[in-house]
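quick one
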Amino acid sequence: MIPTLRHLNNVEPGMFRGEGCWHLKIDYKPALIKPGVPELLDILIFKDRESICGAIGRHQPPLGFKPESRAAFFKFTESNNFNAIILNKPFALDPVTVKKPWGEEIWFSGIEERGVSSSNGIPINFLIEIFGEFLGCSKPPILLKILAPNPEPNLGDLYFELHEKKTEVYVVTDINIESWPNGTGQIRLGFNDREIQIQGTREKFIEKYLSSVENYQRCRNKIDSKVDRMKASFGLSEDEIIEAALYRTFLSEIDKDTINDERMLRKEMNRFTKLHEVKIGDAIKVEPYIPHSLQHGVRVVEFQTPHYERYIISFGQKVITQDHWDTKAALMKAEISEAKIEQPKKLDAFQDMVADFQEFNVTRVVLPSGSELKIEEKGYCLIMGISGETKLGSNRVIKEKSYFVPPTVSLIMTNETESESCFLIARENHSDNK
Ligand SMILES: [Fe+2]
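structure w/ fe (ii) ion:
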């Protein structure tokens, strides 16, 4: 028989001493996502010598049977439509894709109305809110995503924007070979030193650049309102994100002079900014007040805290999240200089510190064939594969595959392959683990 603990408000690890299997019910009230539906959930906890497993379902399972092994527990949960995971071992994060005008974002630890990542069929907001104490993570985890811009120039270029508080870190995982035949992509970062010198002063530079952006924006608005009308004739709303092919069809119906003006004015505006070269594996840290725009066909992994403040300086298509650009306000705050891409700080033979923010840090690990790395027990961490293959318990960390790693006694990552492997580790910064 599985003992039932009946109705509880939350699931505390301390309640489950010794080995065994327990059933309980909780009134789940979603806290991390709105609007969420409160519901009565059935929870199963299974403990053996080495693992603690949790399962979530929406009806009471038969309690007459008592699983004696982890395999039997998983079989039991599956046949009763419960989703189960092991709470004290790394588990894969299954991504959710969110469409953007410039391409798409693939979220591995996102919890938002627009999309929630999951693991073994369990949305991660359930995992964090119900099993957070077991997982060493009781609030939204570090946000890990892939930015996947469209390969087409301009269409796949992100907003040229800056942040006041947010620092971003990108690690390049792919460069589209059709966009960048020699394998070197670009990011727009900061302004062009030569132009700053030509203008002589910060004020003069801002004045010239602002006027150039405004000229471009007038032409942009003209094209965008035509595209909006075409969308409407297709029964689409103005804010609908459409496929690249349909967008191209719309543009092909706009008169050639306007299209040529747009190209010329965009070139003129971008002359004031600086493009930097990037390759696969490169890490780019974007500090506050530095204008930045990842370019088409450059795919990156990004770690961030969920802050949403941004100033949009310019964009090569219609912005749908707001009805204006913040160019002037952004330039008043912007650092007017040619930004440099800082080299990551070497930590030891295998690790570089890619970013060290107040809330979390990210290290890049490059493991030569036959070598290993110990994952220390310092709260949870997120692991993201960049290249090659690394063993993590019974899992394999490969390109763009991500794992949530709860605090465990000891965990060794090993590269048993013939070639080098690379992955990232993101960890929260607490006063006791810095
Ligand atoms: Fe940004």
